[in-house]
Design goal:
By secondary structure, the protein is α/β, with parallel strands linked by helices. It has helices at residues 18-29, 62-72, 86-91, 93-114, 147-166, 193-202, 228-243, 262-273, 297-302, 311-320; strands at 9-13, 33-38, 54-56, 76-79, 118-122, 169-175, 177-179, 208-210, 222-223, 225-227, 251-254, 260-261, 280-282. The protein folds into two domains: 9-178 and 225-255 and 297-302, NAD(P)-binding Rossmann-like Domain (Rossmann fold, 3-Layer(aba) Sandwich), CATH 3.40.50; 193-222 and 257-293 and 309-320, UDP-galactose 4-epimerase, domain 1 (Alpha-Beta Complex), CATH 3.90.25.10. It has a seven-stranded parallel sheet with strand order 3-2-1-4-5-6-11, with helices on both faces. Strands 7-10 form a two-stranded parallel ribbon. A two-stranded parallel sheet has the order 8-13. Helix 1 (18-29) crosses helix 7 (228-243).
Length: 325
């Protein structure tokens, strides 16, 4: 399918990663040319389609980025590359800032050199820290509690400053717990709930819940789970809007509006997989808030955000995409 963005070409940094590879597929389905840059530090070469130009490089290499943009006629960037582990960022702050802050500086400089004037930035709910509200909106104060969250907020600031200086069109998308998969594009993170549950079930172990005495209906933490395909669709919608010259908000939350508890996720895994299990209850993890759920109404208004997948869809797609044992 093609549209008014035919002739556009978008560079996806981190396009060999879990979320990035789904964004690449969404651009392809929309008939929009795409180029991938990824250093494969956590991505997978096989996640990039054979017909997509792929540059194995770090976003810290300004000249390589600028050359790739010029060579492929890049008109916009979707910036997903970065060090994305909030917990590990506490013990590796310098690495986190180098990848996420310095890397974004180099990317923006390459865009300026190559005359690329639009960027969609992959930000994070970690910018909010532990919000003490029932529903997080874009005006909820940002109080990041890890170097990762801080680096994402600084990334937003950098892009906004570059926009003021160089007429850059931009928006930043803050998302929460991204789950589900297309076939062959599994989430392989060692820290995320879904791959941890899948790994435990595949290995015949009992999945674990960290704490069941929170102030929520079933005692387990409530989080905002969104399907990666829905998320990818809004990246394309944001890119199309920027390409068309639309005025977008500087940030959007991609959230469900109601959330799901960890126990609800476990129940869905048992039902979808047919594996009867009762999750092990472990102690709470320090710093886990009772509930974090975001309002996605602004994104629904402007960038085609919608929760098109149920929790069963999320679990089923993650289970079916599990790596072969």
């Amino acid at each position: 399918m093609s549209d008014t963005t035919t002739g556009q070409c978008w560079l996806v940094t981190g396009g060999a990663g879990y979320i990035g590879s789904h964004v690449v597929r969404a651009f392809q389905e929309a008939g929009i040319r795409v180029v991938v840059v990824d250093d494969l530090s956590s991505g997978h070469r096989e996640y990039v389609p054979d017909d997509v130009p792929f540059i194995v490089a770090s976003i810290l290499d300004t000249e390589v980025l600028a050359a790739a943009m010029r060579e492929h006629g890049v008109t916009g960037v979707v910036h997903l590359a970065g060090f994305k582990y909030a917990g590990e960022s506490v013990t590796r702050p310098l690495h986190t800032y180098t990848q996420n802050v310095t890397g974004t500086v180099h990317l923006l400089e390459a865009m300026r050199e190559a005359g690329v004037g639009a960027i969609v930035f992959s930000s994070s709910a970690a910018t909010y820290g532990t919000p003490h509200v029932d529903l997080v909106t874009e005006t909820t104060p940002t109080r990041p509690e890890s170097p990762y969250g801080e680096s994402k907020l600084i990334g937003e600031w950098l892009i906004a400053d570059a926009a003021r200086a160089h007429a850059l069109r931009h928006t930043s998308l803050r998302y929460f717990n991204v789950v589900g998969s297309l076939p062959g594009l599994a989430d392989t993170s060692p820290h995320n709930l879904f791959p941890l549950v899948v790994k435990a079930l595949v290995e015949g172990r009992t999945p674990r819940i960290n704490g069941d005495d929170y102030a929520t209906p079933d005692g387990t933490c409530v989080r905002d789970y969104v399907h990666v395909v829905d998320l990818a669709a809004s990246h394309v919608a944001a890119a199309r809007a920027l390409a068309a010259g639309a005025e977008l908000e500087p940030v959007y939350n991609l959230g469900s509006g109601d959330g799901l508890s960890v126990r609800q996720i476990m129940d869905a895994f048992a039902e979808v997989t047919g594996i009867d299990f009762s999750p092990e209850i472990a102690p709470r993890r320090p710093g886990d808030p009772d509930r974090i759920v975001a309002d996605g109404s602004l994104a629904a208004r402007d960038i085609d955000w919608a929760m098109r997948h149920t929790v069963a869809d999320m679990v089923r797609s993650a289970w079916e995409a599990r790596p072969a044992s």
